From TrEMBL:
Source organism, top-level taxon: Bacteria
TM annotation in the entry: 12-31, 43-62, 74-96, 102-124, 136-154, 166-183, 204-226, 325-344, 351-370, 376-396
Tagged with keyword Transmembrane: yes
GO biological process, one term: proteolysis
Official protein name in the record: CPBP family intramembrane metalloprotease
Molecular function as annotated in GO: endopeptidase activity; metallopeptidase activity
Keywords on record: Hydrolase, Membrane, Metalloprotease, Protease, Transmembrane, Transmembrane helix
Keyword Hydrolase: yes
Family that this chain belongs to: Belongs to the UPF0177 family.
Residue ranges occupied by any CAAX prenyl protease 2/Lysostaphin resistance protein A-like domain in the UniProt entry: 255-355
InterPro entries (alphabetical): Rce1/LyrA-like_dom (IPR003675)
């Protein structure tokens, strides 16, 4: 039998019920009036209304028995993020349609409000997930739902607002709110910075690790267009970098910088969430730290396969990209786990993405000198990983590993509210 939730949880449950009811009414209105918003078709509206109503009924029954509690959890985490976000976007599309003279104000409200769309369902359901595997799967599903926001750009004459939304920073800020609340629900804390004792060895290792990480960004980016080893290692051709002539965002340098910021924030927060879940799932395992680094890097690498659609790449080319970033993913995980500073990992990640986004179109016609030896292109990701692996092995051994394990222990250190959480749903 599910335990009675505390007062704060009850209030948030009521907020979620109201949010679901309002979203359902909006979708019904769109169906009845047959208004085309560009987002919700009649079929999509019908599906969303159905799942919202099922969720509303189960929310009312969730305290009656363990069966209803579990059913409510499943429906909420599977459908509500997408349903609520789509209803939210549809609402603002209506505002844009009826009040075109106020698009800037509406755009600002849409950006600010989106950060709080998932607050009720996060507190009510995501914070009550019991098993580490389900936590991992559902966090990744939330990340995926955030990506739909990119498909519905802001209607505003203000270029900064459009770029801010298109860059994905809205989703990054929303994910901060989501991650903070879901970790709080699990009785954990979001450790942006873990306090360290800055000994001479730790300081030297940290400086060396960050310096290598930034150099590795340049190496991994330029080896793909280098004419020789020197151009890959240190003699980089900076004339191939120009935010004003970006291959990805032509004629829009501000979007290059905003997208760089988004990648560093969003993807490192996602990596943090994955590391926390893996720390719990691999608790008491002999090679927990190594497993966390490798599995998180694998997930990070595989998450690049959707680029086949977004960047119109074939499977082989995308697979090479997936291989390219594996060692980088390991290194970024190690940077956080060793230094305890998430912002350092964000900086190193941001440098990598800036180099990619700032590449000019001419780089598309430049092949790596490594392709002369193996024309298929497979040698580039092999060399990138071969250079990074020795540092990864070095950091996951000796006293450095012991230091990492201490920081992992901190990640799972329960907050004062963990006993309250355990009364509702037992932690694993």
């Amino acid at each position: 039998m599910a335990k009675t939730e505390k007062k704060g949880g009850i209030r948030m449950k009521r907020c979620l019920q109201i949010q679901i009811a309002v979203s359902s009414l909006l979708c019904m209105f769109l169906l009845e009036m047959q208004i085309r918003t560009g987002i919700l078709s009649p079929v999509k509206s019908g599906i969303i209304i159905s799942t919202l109503m099922i969720s509303l009924i189960l929310l009312q029954l969730r305290d009656k028995s363990e069966y209803f509690f579990n059913a409510s959890q499943i429906v909420n985490v599977l459908f509500l993020p997408y349903d609520l976000e789509m209803a939210y976007l549809a609402f603002f599309q209506l505002l844009f349609k009826f009040f075109p003279q106020a698009t800037n104000l509406i755009g600002i409200l849409r950006i600010v409000g989106f950060a709080f769309v998932l607050v009720p369902v996060t507190v009510v359901s995501y914070g009550k997930l019991r098993y580490w595997l389900s936590r991992l799967i559902n966090i990744e599903m939330v990340v995926f739902t955030f990506l739909i926001f990119d498909d519905y750009p802001l209607i505003s004459p203000n270029s900064f607002l459009r770029n801010f939304e298109y860059s994905g920073l809205v989703c990054a800020l929303s994910f901060i709110v989501f991650l903070y609340l879901v970790l709080k629900g699990w009785g954990l804390k979001l450790w942006i910075s873990i306090r360290q004792k800055w000994t001479r060895v730790f300081t030297f290792t940290t400086v060396g690790l960050i310096a290598f990480g930034i150099w590795y960004d340049f190496f991994a980016a330029f080896i793909q267009i280098a004419d020789n080893f020197s151009e890959a290692i240190w003699n980089w051709n900076f004339s191939l970098l120009n935010p004003n002539q970006s291959l990805f965002f032509p004629g829009n340098p501000s979007l290059v910088y905003l997208a760089t910021l988004e990648a560093g924030i969003f993807e490192e927060l996602e990596r943090y969430a994955i590391l926390v879940v893996l720390a719990g799932a691999l608790k008491n395992k002999k090679f927990r730290a190594q497993g966390m680094v490798l599995i998180s890097a694998l997930i990070f690498s595989l998450s690049h396969y959707p680029n086949m659609i977004s960047e119109h790449k074939d499977f082989v080319t995308t697979s090479y990209q997936v291989m390219d970033v594996f060692a980088i993913g390991c290194l970024l995980a190690i940077i956080y786990l060793y230094t305890g500073k998430l912002w350092l990992a964000m900086i190193v990640h941001g440098v990598w993405d800036f180099l990619v986004f700032a590449m000019i179109p001419a780089t598309m016609d430049i092949a790596s000198f490594l392709d002369l030896y193996v024309p298929s292109g497979i040698l580039v990701p092999v060399v990138i990983n071969a250079v990074g692996i020795p540092i990864i092995i070095f950091m996951l051994s000796g006293k450095r590993l012991s230091h990492i394990e201490k920081n992992i222990y901190t990640l799972l250190k329960p907050t004062k509210s963990v006993m309250v959480v355990n009364k509702i749903v037992p932690q694993n």
